Amino acid sequence: MRVLTVGGGGxxxxxxxxxxxxxxxxxxxxxxxxxxxxxxxKAYRLVEDVHVDDICEFAIEHDVVWAFIGPExxxxxxxxxxxxxxxxxxxxxxxxxxxxxxxxxxxRQLMTKYNIEGNLGYAVFKTAEDTEKYLKTLDAEIxxxxxGLTGGKGVKVxxxxxxxxEETMAYVREVLGKTGSSGGVVIEEKAVxxxxxxxxFVDGKRIAPMPLVQDHKRAxxxxxxPNTGGMGSYSDxxxxxxxxxxxxxxxxxxxxxxxxxxxxxxxxxYRGPMYGQFMLTRTGPxxxxxxxxxxxxxxxxxxxxxxxxxxxxxxxMATGKLKDxxxxxxxxxxxxxxxxxGYGTDPEPGHEICVDxxxxxxxxxxxxxxxxxxxxxxxxxxxxxxVGIVGIGRTIEEAERICExxxxxxxxxxxxxxxxxGKRDVIxxxxxxxxxxxx
Length: 439
Ligand code: AMP
Ligand code: GLY
Fold this sequence. Notes:
The chain is α+β, with helices and mostly antiparallel strands. It has 3 domains: 2-94, Rossmann fold (3-Layer(aba) Sandwich), CATH 3.40.50; 121-189, Dna Ligase, domain 1 (2-Layer Sandwich), CATH 3.30.1490.20; 194-426, ATP-grasp fold, B domain (D-amino Acid Aminotransferase, Chain A, domain 1, 2-Layer Sandwich). The protein contains 15 helices and 25 strands. The strands form 7 sheets. Strands 12, 15, 18, 20, 23 and 25 form a 6-stranded antiparallel β-sheet that branches. Strands 3-2-1-4-5 form a 5-stranded parallel β-sheet, with helices on both faces. The longest helix is centred in the middle third of the chain and has 20 residues, at 246-265. Residues 152, 215, 230, 291, 295-296, 298 line the site of glycine.
């Protein structure tokens, strides 16, 4: 029952709580001193999550048998392959299978090769001149993305962030300046609609679905501003989304099933949680991105309502024995991330933040610590998201109210929250928008 956990964010704290509830003995490595994870771990070490050798050394020292890996960066570094070599069974993809996230062009090409529905038009360029020639042949709006990992922050959308050809080209040059020949720039067809997240557990062959979630990537209320890792998210008691019809959800699951089959056919079977970011458009769900892990914040919506023991799911994914059904409670959740002021552009770290855990719990909410550091009994913000507060209720409305009540128990002089997430009128506007788009 000894499980290694890798990562020190809100997603990993939620995973550690779910593992703890299901009886696992937890050994953790993380970049930052996350007090929620430290509380549950038998032992922990502060290690950069991309330092594969140090993580393997810790795993050997503590004789761990199983591993859960939260973030994508260690997957790209081949941590699963290295842990496999020392006999640790991982509920996470190998370096080859994780390319479904780490290379956007690999993902798009795989979907093209296997004729999988839900793909978007795309092209990858290594120079600004070639990109510009291509852009001149298009008449529809596009999205500019670095080809590699960006933590969700490198994507700019025409009509939102890029409002002229000049602005688009300036951003293309900026991306190429940063990624250079390592990956290039991806120009993607812009999908118009509403986004939703479908995550599934995968054991190499089979998938078991999790409830649908909607994240909010834009930094500011009203879904404007720069893209972030995600400011907060909600899920509904029936595990659908108020604006996603059942058939669209089935289609999304079918797309993920076919991606899992395609990875198998390519000789790199996928194990672990898989994250499908979809845009529900007039012509059905389209893939915005696939991630080789749980979403953050989305993990904080689904893991607190997981009924099946998380440890047994980890074991089943790692050993190819996943049951078709993984059970979740029929409850709604609303998660709002407390972030350092300036998050999304230039956050200023190192400010004290206070969390009254008892107060939060009395409201019926959960608290998940993220990019904070505990020092001499006090908590300090980092440059990324600080604390996730999750309200849980019978309806989204109830969960949202609980989340807002609980947020009164988090204080600091340099923090921000997107209060609009999960609000009734905001969701109703999405429902109306999709109704008119699909009619
Ligand atoms: P990503 O990191 O690829 O998930 O992109 C961040 C955000 O940019 C997404 O959540 C979308 O809101 C937006 N985005 C990315 N790709 C597209 C696309 N092809 N069409 C429309 N919006 C997109
Ligand atoms: N919530 C978006 C992500 O985890 O990439």
